[in-house]
Specification:
By secondary structure, the chain is mostly helical. The protein contains 18 helices and two strands.
Protein backbone atom coordinates (compact mmCIF):
# COMPACT_ATOMS: atom_id res chain seq x y z
CA UNK A 1 0.00 0.00 0.00
CA UNK A 2 2.37 2.66 -1.24
CA UNK A 3 3.98 4.54 1.63
CA UNK A 4 2.91 1.76 4.02
CA UNK A 5 5.03 -0.83 2.20
CA UNK A 6 8.16 -1.79 4.17
CA UNK A 7 9.06 -4.90 2.17
CA UNK A 8 12.15 -3.20 0.74
CA UNK A 9 13.66 -2.85 4.21
CA UNK A 10 12.67 -6.38 5.20
CA UNK A 11 14.45 -7.68 2.14
CA UNK A 12 17.53 -5.61 2.98
CA UNK A 13 17.65 -7.04 6.51
CA UNK A 14 17.27 -10.60 5.22
CA UNK A 15 20.08 -10.08 2.70
CA UNK A 16 22.34 -8.60 5.38
CA UNK A 17 21.71 -11.47 7.79
CA UNK A 18 21.75 -14.09 5.01
CA UNK A 19 18.38 -15.53 6.03
CA UNK A 20 15.74 -17.17 3.88
CA UNK A 21 13.24 -14.53 2.81
CA UNK A 22 9.77 -14.70 1.27
CA UNK A 23 7.40 -11.84 0.44
CA UNK A 24 3.77 -12.80 0.95
CA UNK A 25 0.78 -11.00 -0.52
CA UNK A 26 -2.16 -10.33 1.77
CA UNK A 27 -5.77 -10.54 0.61
CA UNK A 28 -7.72 -7.94 2.56
CA UNK A 29 -11.48 -7.70 2.74
CA UNK A 30 -11.68 -4.86 5.28
CA UNK A 31 -15.45 -4.62 5.78
CA UNK A 32 -15.97 -8.38 6.06
CA UNK A 33 -12.89 -8.86 8.19
CA UNK A 34 -13.67 -6.18 10.76
CA UNK A 35 -17.11 -7.74 11.30
CA UNK A 36 -15.50 -11.15 11.79
CA UNK A 37 -12.86 -9.83 14.17
CA UNK A 38 -15.36 -7.98 16.36
CA UNK A 39 -17.20 -11.26 16.85
CA UNK A 40 -13.88 -12.99 17.56
CA UNK A 41 -13.06 -10.34 20.18
CA UNK A 42 -16.52 -10.29 21.70
CA UNK A 43 -16.21 -6.58 22.41
CA UNK A 44 -15.67 -3.19 20.71
CA UNK A 45 -12.10 -2.34 19.75
CA UNK A 46 -10.46 0.97 18.90
CA UNK A 47 -7.27 -0.15 17.16
CA UNK A 48 -7.68 -0.50 13.39
CA UNK A 49 -4.26 -2.17 13.11
CA UNK A 50 -6.03 -5.37 14.10
CA UNK A 51 -6.88 -5.62 10.39
CA UNK A 52 -3.32 -5.74 8.98
CA UNK A 53 -2.34 -7.95 11.93
CA UNK A 54 -5.03 -10.39 10.86
CA UNK A 55 -4.02 -10.25 7.20
CA UNK A 56 -0.33 -10.81 7.94
CA UNK A 57 -1.20 -13.65 10.32
CA UNK A 58 -3.37 -15.30 7.68
CA UNK A 59 -0.63 -15.02 5.06
CA UNK A 60 2.04 -16.36 7.40
CA UNK A 61 -0.23 -19.05 8.83
CA UNK A 62 -0.44 -20.69 5.42
CA UNK A 63 3.28 -21.52 5.70
CA UNK A 64 4.25 -21.66 9.39
CA UNK A 65 2.67 -22.57 12.73
CA UNK A 66 4.41 -19.95 14.89
CA UNK A 67 5.78 -16.45 14.35
CA UNK A 68 7.59 -13.73 16.30
CA UNK A 69 6.28 -10.23 17.06
CA UNK A 70 7.90 -7.09 18.45
CA UNK A 71 5.28 -6.24 21.07
CA UNK A 72 6.77 -4.78 24.23
CA UNK A 73 9.68 -3.02 22.56
CA UNK A 74 8.09 0.43 22.67
CA UNK A 75 6.84 0.03 26.23
CA UNK A 76 10.17 -1.23 27.57
CA UNK A 77 12.55 0.98 25.59
CA UNK A 78 10.71 4.32 25.20
CA UNK A 79 9.51 3.98 21.63
CA UNK A 80 6.41 6.15 21.44
CA UNK A 81 6.40 9.85 20.57
CA UNK A 82 3.72 10.41 23.18
CA UNK A 83 6.17 9.32 25.88
CA UNK A 84 8.35 12.30 25.01
CA UNK A 85 5.17 14.40 25.02
CA UNK A 86 4.61 13.24 28.61
CA UNK A 87 7.82 15.03 29.54
CA UNK A 88 6.62 18.20 27.79
CA UNK A 89 3.34 18.05 29.67
CA UNK A 90 5.08 17.59 32.99
CA UNK A 91 7.26 20.65 32.37
CA UNK A 92 5.07 23.03 30.38
CA UNK A 93 1.42 22.04 30.91
CA UNK A 94 0.45 25.20 32.76
CA UNK A 95 1.93 27.40 30.03
CA UNK A 96 0.34 25.41 27.19
CA UNK A 97 -3.12 25.85 28.70
CA UNK A 98 -2.99 29.49 27.68
CA UNK A 99 -1.86 28.97 24.08
CA UNK A 100 -4.06 30.98 21.68
CA UNK A 101 -4.48 27.98 19.33
CA UNK A 102 -7.02 25.25 20.07
CA UNK A 103 -6.61 21.57 19.27
CA UNK A 104 -9.78 21.60 17.19
CA UNK A 105 -8.22 24.12 14.78
CA UNK A 106 -5.32 21.73 14.06
CA UNK A 107 -7.38 18.52 13.87
CA UNK A 108 -7.90 18.89 10.11
CA UNK A 109 -4.28 18.05 9.42
CA UNK A 110 -3.26 14.41 8.93
CA UNK A 111 -2.88 12.34 12.12
CA UNK A 112 0.86 11.94 11.54
CA UNK A 113 1.48 15.63 10.84
CA UNK A 114 3.30 17.81 13.36
CA UNK A 115 0.39 20.25 13.47
CA UNK A 116 -2.13 17.54 14.31
CA UNK A 117 0.17 16.23 17.05
CA UNK A 118 0.61 19.75 18.39
CA UNK A 119 -3.17 20.11 18.55
CA UNK A 120 -3.50 16.87 20.50
CA UNK A 121 -0.78 18.04 22.88
CA UNK A 122 -2.64 21.30 23.48
CA UNK A 123 -5.85 19.37 24.11
CA UNK A 124 -4.00 17.17 26.60
CA UNK A 125 -2.64 20.22 28.42
CA UNK A 126 -6.17 21.57 28.89
CA UNK A 127 -7.72 18.20 29.75
CA UNK A 128 -8.18 16.68 33.18
CA UNK A 129 -6.76 13.50 31.68
CA UNK A 130 -3.40 15.02 30.79
CA UNK A 131 -1.23 12.30 29.26
CA UNK A 132 -4.22 9.95 28.97
CA UNK A 133 -5.65 12.33 26.38
CA UNK A 134 -2.78 11.21 24.14
CA UNK A 135 -2.89 7.54 25.07
CA UNK A 136 -6.65 7.09 24.64
CA UNK A 137 -8.55 6.94 21.36
CA UNK A 138 -10.88 9.77 22.40
CA UNK A 139 -9.54 13.00 23.82
CA UNK A 140 -11.70 14.54 26.53
CA UNK A 141 -12.85 17.23 24.08
CA UNK A 142 -13.95 14.77 21.41
CA UNK A 143 -15.52 12.36 23.89
CA UNK A 144 -17.72 15.04 25.40
CA UNK A 145 -18.85 15.90 21.89
CA UNK A 146 -20.20 12.40 21.21
CA UNK A 147 -21.25 11.56 24.77
CA UNK A 148 -21.98 14.91 26.46
CA UNK A 149 -23.87 13.43 29.42
CA UNK A 150 -21.12 10.99 30.39
CA UNK A 151 -18.23 11.68 32.73
CA UNK A 152 -14.60 10.73 32.52
CA UNK A 153 -13.41 9.12 35.71
CA UNK A 154 -11.07 11.31 37.70
CA UNK A 155 -7.71 9.84 38.58
CA UNK A 156 -4.04 10.56 38.70
CA UNK A 157 -2.80 10.86 35.13
CA UNK A 158 0.79 9.77 34.47
CA UNK A 159 3.27 12.62 34.85
CA UNK A 160 6.60 12.40 33.06
CA UNK A 161 8.13 9.60 31.03
CA UNK A 162 8.61 7.14 33.91
CA UNK A 163 4.94 7.14 34.92
CA UNK A 164 3.81 7.14 31.28
CA UNK A 165 5.99 4.09 30.58
CA UNK A 166 4.45 2.31 33.54
CA UNK A 167 0.97 3.11 32.23
CA UNK A 168 1.77 1.88 28.72
CA UNK A 169 3.24 -1.36 30.03
CA UNK A 170 0.41 -2.04 32.47
CA UNK A 171 -2.57 -0.88 30.41
CA UNK A 172 -1.96 -0.27 26.70
CA UNK A 173 0.21 -3.33 26.13
CA UNK A 174 -2.14 -5.97 27.62
CA UNK A 175 -5.40 -4.13 26.90
CA UNK A 176 -4.71 -3.22 23.28
CA UNK A 177 -1.60 -4.63 21.63
CA UNK A 178 -1.43 -8.14 23.06
CA UNK A 179 -5.20 -8.56 22.80
CA UNK A 180 -5.08 -7.41 19.17
CA UNK A 181 -2.28 -9.79 18.18
CA UNK A 182 -3.77 -12.71 20.10
CA UNK A 183 -7.22 -12.22 18.56
CA UNK A 184 -5.97 -11.69 15.01
CA UNK A 185 -3.46 -14.55 15.05
CA UNK A 186 -5.66 -17.13 16.75
CA UNK A 187 -8.40 -16.47 14.21
CA UNK A 188 -6.12 -18.09 11.61
CA UNK A 189 -4.82 -19.85 13.80
CA UNK A 190 -1.18 -18.87 14.21
CA UNK A 191 0.85 -18.90 17.40
CA UNK A 192 2.66 -15.59 17.97
CA UNK A 193 5.45 -15.18 20.51
CA UNK A 194 6.97 -11.91 21.72
CA UNK A 195 10.71 -12.10 22.50
CA UNK A 196 10.72 -8.63 24.09
CA UNK A 197 8.39 -10.04 26.76
CA UNK A 198 10.88 -12.70 27.78
CA UNK A 199 11.29 -12.41 31.52
CA UNK A 200 15.00 -11.54 31.37
CA UNK A 201 14.42 -8.80 28.76
CA UNK A 202 11.50 -7.34 30.72
CA UNK A 203 13.48 -7.27 33.96
CA UNK A 204 16.35 -5.53 32.19
CA UNK A 205 14.10 -2.94 30.57
CA UNK A 206 11.97 -2.25 33.63
CA UNK A 207 15.04 -2.02 35.84
CA UNK A 208 16.90 0.49 33.66
CA UNK A 209 16.69 4.27 33.97
CA UNK A 210 14.97 6.30 31.27
CA UNK A 211 18.25 8.12 30.60
CA UNK A 212 20.02 4.84 29.87
CA UNK A 213 17.16 3.55 27.69
CA UNK A 214 17.29 6.75 25.62
CA UNK A 215 21.07 6.86 25.34
CA UNK A 216 22.02 6.36 21.70
CA UNK A 217 25.31 5.68 20.00
CA UNK A 218 28.28 7.86 20.92
CA UNK A 219 26.47 9.07 24.02
CA UNK A 220 23.66 10.79 22.09
CA UNK A 221 21.03 11.56 24.72
CA UNK A 222 17.23 11.54 24.75
CA UNK A 223 16.72 9.42 21.66
CA UNK A 224 13.65 7.21 21.56
CA UNK A 225 14.75 3.57 21.68
CA UNK A 226 18.32 4.89 21.84
CA UNK A 227 19.73 1.85 23.64
CA UNK A 228 17.82 -0.58 21.44
CA UNK A 229 18.96 1.19 18.29
CA UNK A 230 22.57 1.14 19.49
CA UNK A 231 22.36 -2.62 19.94
CA UNK A 232 20.60 -3.08 16.59
CA UNK A 233 23.31 -1.03 14.84
CA UNK A 234 25.80 -3.81 15.63
CA UNK A 235 23.80 -6.32 13.61
CA UNK A 236 21.67 -4.50 11.03
CA UNK A 237 22.21 -2.03 8.16
CA UNK A 238 22.44 1.53 9.43
CA UNK A 239 19.82 2.71 6.91
CA UNK A 240 17.33 0.37 8.55
CA UNK A 241 18.29 1.21 12.12
CA UNK A 242 18.06 4.97 11.59
CA UNK A 243 14.67 4.90 9.88
CA UNK A 244 11.79 6.71 11.53
CA UNK A 245 9.26 4.53 13.28
CA UNK A 246 6.28 3.81 11.02
CA UNK A 247 3.97 1.83 13.22
CA UNK A 248 1.72 -0.95 11.96
CA UNK A 249 -1.09 1.11 10.52
CA UNK A 250 -3.41 1.28 7.53
CA UNK A 251 -4.92 4.40 5.91
CA UNK A 252 -8.26 3.72 7.59
CA UNK A 253 -9.23 7.41 7.52
CA UNK A 254 -8.77 7.53 3.76
CA UNK A 255 -10.69 4.27 3.34
CA UNK A 256 -13.62 5.78 5.24
CA UNK A 257 -13.66 8.64 2.73
CA UNK A 258 -13.09 6.66 -0.47
CA UNK A 259 -14.94 3.41 0.33
CA UNK A 260 -11.84 1.27 -0.13
CA UNK A 261 -12.82 -2.27 0.81
CA UNK A 262 -16.42 -1.05 1.39
CA UNK A 263 -15.34 0.66 4.62
CA UNK A 264 -17.21 3.91 3.92
CA UNK A 265 -20.36 1.98 3.18
CA UNK A 266 -19.99 -0.04 6.39
CA UNK A 267 -19.30 3.08 8.47
CA UNK A 268 -22.22 5.08 7.07
CA UNK A 269 -24.58 2.18 7.68
CA UNK A 270 -23.38 1.84 11.29
CA UNK A 271 -23.63 5.58 11.99
CA UNK A 272 -26.73 6.36 9.91
CA UNK A 273 -28.98 9.12 11.33
CA UNK A 274 -31.82 6.67 11.97
CA UNK A 275 -29.62 4.26 13.87
CA UNK A 276 -30.40 3.73 17.55
CA UNK A 277 -27.60 1.45 18.76
CA UNK A 278 -25.34 4.24 20.01
CA UNK A 279 -28.16 6.57 21.08
CA UNK A 280 -29.63 3.81 23.26
CA UNK A 281 -26.32 3.64 25.10
CA UNK A 282 -25.90 7.33 25.87
CA UNK A 283 -24.26 8.69 22.73
CA UNK A 284 -25.41 11.91 21.13
CA UNK A 285 -26.88 11.43 17.66
CA UNK A 286 -25.90 14.99 16.77
CA UNK A 287 -22.39 14.66 18.22
CA UNK A 288 -21.67 11.44 16.34
CA UNK A 289 -22.99 12.97 13.13
CA UNK A 290 -20.84 16.08 13.53
CA UNK A 291 -17.75 13.95 14.12
CA UNK A 292 -18.51 11.85 11.04
CA UNK A 293 -19.13 14.91 8.85
CA UNK A 294 -15.97 16.64 10.09
CA UNK A 295 -13.89 13.64 9.08
CA UNK A 296 -15.61 13.04 5.75
CA UNK A 297 -15.22 16.69 4.70
CA UNK A 298 -11.59 16.92 5.78
CA UNK A 299 -12.24 19.19 8.74
CA UNK A 300 -10.60 16.75 11.11
CA UNK A 301 -8.82 13.40 11.27
CA UNK A 302 -11.03 11.31 13.53
CA UNK A 303 -10.54 7.88 11.97
CA UNK A 304 -9.65 6.13 15.22
CA UNK A 305 -12.70 7.52 17.00
CA UNK A 306 -14.92 6.51 14.09
CA UNK A 307 -13.39 3.03 13.97
CA UNK A 308 -14.18 2.63 17.67
CA UNK A 309 -17.78 3.76 17.15
CA UNK A 310 -18.06 1.42 14.16
CA UNK A 311 -16.87 -1.62 16.11
CA UNK A 312 -19.19 -0.67 18.98
CA UNK A 313 -22.20 -0.75 16.65
CA UNK A 314 -21.04 -4.02 15.06
CA UNK A 315 -20.65 -5.53 18.53
CA UNK A 316 -24.11 -4.36 19.66
CA UNK A 317 -25.67 -5.84 16.51
CA UNK A 318 -23.82 -9.10 17.10
CA UNK A 319 -25.11 -9.27 20.67
CA UNK A 320 -28.67 -9.08 19.38
CA UNK A 321 -28.05 -12.04 17.09
CA UNK A 322 -26.58 -14.43 19.65
Amino acid sequence: MGSYDESEYAREVATHLKTEHHVLDVRPSPAEDVCRLVEQLGQPFGDSSILPTYWVSAAAGAHVKAALAGDGGDELFVGYERLVAAEWLARHRNKMKFAPVRGRALARFGPKSKLNKAGRLLDAARSRQGYLDLAHVFSERVWHGVAPDSTIADGDAPSGIEEALSYEFGHSLPGDLLRKVDTASMAVPLEVRSPFLDRAVMEAGLGATVDSLMMGESGRRRERKGLLRAVAARHLPRRVVERRKMGFAIPIGQWFRTNEGSMRELLLDALKPSGTELVDHGFSRRGVRELLNAHMHGHGSYEHCLFTLLTTVLWLRWLKRI
